[in-house]
Every structure is written in C-alpha cells, then in structure tokens.
Design goal:
about 250 residues; alpha/beta; Rossmann fold; 2 domains; 5-stranded parallel β-sheet; 9 helices; 11 strands; about 30% helix; about 25% strand; elongated
Length: about 250
Amino acid sequence: MKVKSIIVSQPEPETAKSPYFELAEKYGLKIDFRPFIQVEGVPGKEFRNTRIYILEHTAVIFTSRTAIDHFFRISQELRLTIPDTMKYFCISEATAFYLQKYIVYRKRKIFYADGKFSDLANVMKKHKEEKFLVPLSDIHKQEIPDLLDAEGYKYTKAILYRTVSANLSDLSEIKYDILVFFSPQGIRSLLQNFPNFVQNETRIACFGPTTAKAIREAGLRLDIEAPTAQAPSMTMALEQYIKKHNKI
C-alpha cells in the first residue's frame, strides 16, 4: 500500500530545515507531529517523603535541561536557597549554558563534558570529595548509576520527574499509514490510549533496538527499523520504504 500520511511521536521540529519537512515536500506526504509521552514533575510533598535532602549535597549532576528545570522547581517548592558554593556538572556545554536560566553563570563552579556520561564521570575525577545529587526521571539509563558506582563516587539518585503517557483521545478517529516511535514508553502510550488497537495495514517504524524490542513484545509488526547500515537515520529509513512502496 502507498504511504500518504505519517505521525511522528515527537514534538514538531523547531527548524524549517528538518528532514521530515523535506520528506513531506518531496513525496507529497502529510506528516504530523504529536508527542505520545510527556514529563510530569514529582510534587514537592512527595519528594519530601523520600528523605533526600538537597542541601546535604555539594554538587549536582545534570544530564538534561529537563533535569535542571525540575531541580530548581523542587528547590523552589521546598523553599530552599541553593548556596553559591554548589558545583554543577553537566553532560554537555549546551546543558551547562542552560543553567543561566536559574543562576548567575559566571559566578558559579560549572563543569561539562562533550555529551557522553562516561566523559562527565572522568571530569568528576578531580572532585571525588564532593557529595553528588543526580536528578533523574523514573526512566533513566542504568549507565549513570553503574558508572558512578564503578568510580566510587558518593551520590544520591533523586527522582524529580516522571515520563507518562500523553492523552491522545483526540486521535481516536484519525488514521495514519505509518506510526513512528522512538522509545518503549511511546509504545506503552499507544496501547494505554488505544487498548483495542489493531494494526492491520498500519505500518510501524521505530528508532533504536529497545523500541524495536518493545514493539515485538507487544505483539505488533515492525515494518521500518532504524538505525541500520543503509539507513542511519529515521527519515532515511522512511524514505527508502516510501520509494519502494509508492513505486517512485
């Protein structure tokens, strides 16, 4: 069957030069963007019950902008004043610069890596005496605690936000030829929102092996998978499939 419509389970790209827009224009496709999951903050009262005391820590490790937002949100809810002596260790330079939203950047001790947590763990080696707080989502990479444990760092995991299913009830009567997923949580959201979902001729595409595994475990058919040697990106995998099935 020809492909005419695609829904991508992510926010719409902010740049006009997105390969998704190019794909839509090139093949005359309708491509919609809709996040299937959303982030929800852990309430201050609930966090207080964990008995994790932010001010007992001397440094914070940030793996994303979302982690920064929720660290300062929870601090405000708990009416905490973060001391100027607090050190910040960020996964990337862009994440570090995002701190300017909340603190006077040039007056703080801020360190960052090149985007890999393993590199950040190396940056931290000169600061082993610190007691680190690690703000995380309820769903996070096990690599983070594993590396911190392996290096012998003193740290506390703080679950400050959760990944939950978005409400997709408005899509109940809308059909797409291809559904594109990027995480197992997206698949979970699909099945929670549409428990009677039957795939039939709907094609499912995904990026990443964990997402592919979740699709198959849900008993669904995976039609388009990336990355591969021939298609390192999701849009390349989609284009190859469209060329073949739209007979272009």
